[in-house]
Amino acid sequence: MARILGYIAASLDGMIATEDDNLEWLFKYDGMNLGEHDYRTFLQRIRTVVMGRSTYDFIENEPSPWAYHEQRVIVVTSRPIENPKGPIEVRSDIGALVSELRMLDDGDVWMVGGGQLQMAFLERGALDEIEIYLIPEMLGGGRPLFPATGFRASPTLVSAQALDKGCVRLHYRF
Hints:
Elements: E1 4-11, E2 15-17, H1 24-27, H2 39-44, E3 46-52, H3 53-61, E4 72-76, E5 89-91, H4 94-103, E6 108-112, H5 115-123, E7 129-135, E8 143-144, E9 156-162, E10 168-173
């Protein structure tokens, strides 16, 4: 059974992007030494990438090439995607998707980007672990890591680690 994982950065005040979906505040932390927790190392164990439409649109508009050639990519959306940047599958039923993902046995699943989709998976008990990279920036508003839905949980802290530039890695299990 596949594990469904989160791996995401958030500002100190709990935002993953500014109101206009800008990530410049985060890019100045590129190149940090994360050791065994490096993004490239993490991605090697991922077989399936799941993202919401907003995250897909953000990645599609980036000038960089499609980063997920080695992974199955699923975009959760109710709107059609014409001329996708890379090979993707489209799903709209999160409950059915969770069941489908749980049946996979070829590697882990990564919930990329947005807090809305991660929250939808949390509400269904379908996010197994999350690594949150806390960045010492205060955005004063923007896109929250976990949108307010009334959902409550008490995840177990697996580890906490201080990193370069005042950043902290938090690893939780649900």
